[in-house]
């Protein structure tokens, strides 16, 4: 297949994805299919995130002691490490949201420029993330149901921040998307969540067994642990894309295509 043929094939596939997203409610299989295709299309950018941002975190993590079961910290570096890791996770998630929609719209983007674009949104994403956690946690204290309800109606707040330039009104934007179809959205999110857990367990349980067997070889065990962490991160990338595809589907159906600037 020539370069020209590849270009036009990619363009046609992109238009087909866009038409499906804006004209019909996707089946779960469509979510996975489109998400996987975008994952492959963005593999170079995602690999950049993985090696430049996540690999150092995965390596440093091997030297950070686990928190004391009684609530203490054996090392003063534990809290700073987790804060930095959390911020990097937020930055990458915001960037993946943007790369996903750009892929749908057949707009090219490079990882470094996408990171620059989300830099101004990290603080608001962090603050709203903390607020989201507090609301869901407090809601879960009351027979769990309020926490689940809040978790579903506000599930798309990070996508609203990354893609629709929302700030604190990101919660309202998410609520409007879910309005009138709570149970449909709840079911889809449940399927995606269970699928993520199953896939992570399918990958990590055998790796964990191998790591225990090779425990007498510290270097090999170290390498396996780092690789395991990176595999989990890559799986998370995929599901962030799939989740973003679902957001875009709901958003295009309710609000139409956004103006491109």
Automatic annotation (TrEMBL):
Keywords assigned: Membrane, Transmembrane, Transmembrane helix
UniProt source species: Euhalothece natronophila Z-M001
Claim: Lipid biosynthesis is one of the keywords in the record: no
Protein name as annotated: Glycerophosphoryl diester phosphodiesterase membrane domain-containing protein
Superkingdom in the source lineage: Bacteria
Transmembrane segments annotated in the record for this chain: 46-65, 77-100, 121-142, 148-168, 189-213, 219-248
């Amino acid at each position: 297949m020539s370069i020209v043929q590849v270009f036009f094939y990619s363009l046609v596939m992109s238009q087909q994805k866009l038409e499906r997203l804006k004209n019909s409610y996707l089946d779960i299989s469509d979510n996975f299919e489109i998400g996987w295709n975008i994952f492959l299309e963005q593999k170079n950018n995602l690999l950049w995130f993985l090696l430049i941002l996540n690999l150092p975190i995965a390596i440093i993590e091997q030297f950070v002691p686990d928190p004391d079961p009684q609530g203490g910290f054996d090392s003063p570096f534990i809290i700073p490490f987790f804060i930095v890791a959390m911020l990097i996770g937020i930055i990458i998630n915001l960037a993946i949201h943007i790369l996903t929609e750009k892929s749908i719209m057949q707009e090219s983007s490079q990882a470094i420029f996408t990171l620059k674009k989300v830099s101004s949104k990290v603080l608001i994403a962090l603050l709203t993330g903390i607020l989201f956690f507090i609301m869901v946690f407090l809601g879960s204290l009351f027979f769990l149901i309020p926490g689940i309800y809040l978790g579903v109606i506000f599930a798309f707040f990070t996508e609203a921040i990354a893609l629709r330039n929302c700030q604190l009104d990101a919660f309202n934007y998410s609520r409007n998307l879910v309005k009138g179809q709570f149970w449909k959205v709840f079911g889809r999110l449940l399927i995606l969540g269970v699928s993520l857990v199953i896939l992570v367990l399918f990958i990590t349980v055998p790796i964990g067994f191998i790591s225990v067997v090779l425990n007498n070889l510290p270097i090999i065990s170290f390498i396996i642990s780092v690789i395991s962490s990176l595999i989990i991160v890559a799986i998370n990338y995929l599901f962030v894309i799939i989740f973003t595809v679902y957001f875009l589907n709901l958003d295009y159906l309710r609000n139409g295509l956004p103006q491109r600037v």
